[in-house]
Predict the structure.
Amino acid sequence: MAIAQEFEQCFVDITTSCPYGLKRKSVYHQAVFSSLNSETMADFLGLGYRRNGNCMYSMRCPGCNGCVPIRIRPQEFRPNRNQKRVWRKNSGITVGVAPLTMTKENLALLDRFLHVRFPEGKSTADSYYTGFFITSIAHCFEFRYRIGDKLLGVAIVDGSEKFLNAVYFSFDPDEGWRSPGTLNILYLIDFCRNHRIEFLYLGYWIKEVKAMCYKAAFKPHELYIDGRWQRIG
């Protein structure tokens, strides 16, 4: 692909431990940019790259191809029975779209989510926003889910007229019975349909990581395998 060749000289390989807790080494093929236009961002996403702050990266781990980029064409999506049930039981939730901001409410929710989901982790909500979410290379914003005045969840997304890129989603651990992860994807799909956005990128699907498996239930979807997107379902 032309976009990969154009920027390849900017990329380096960084070796670290697996960010998903698997007992193996990970290699990030990454580059930091001061600016990217939406078309270039769309091209990178179309090649299976992800964004972390101002960094674009893909995983090139030795002996492992577990991180599989997954995306949905919202106009083709058909909900299954469980997804319809999740949508119905959350009919009282309201959703607002807002600029990406480090409000005390957002930070408190994310800190609580991280403490429950990753009790041994050392990352804080502040470090996630400053090091992971905030960017100058993408148009990044938030979807805020509420039950009355209570904040249920926050989805961080990059967006353009061609794509939505789901960066991160955190939610109140006490509201897990609502299946908020599924609800968030359903709402993002609905948003894309209403705005005629062609692709919704969901990050990685990792078969060995239980927390990632629910993404594959959204069908049809496409997986980026062997350098091309392959339709599943």
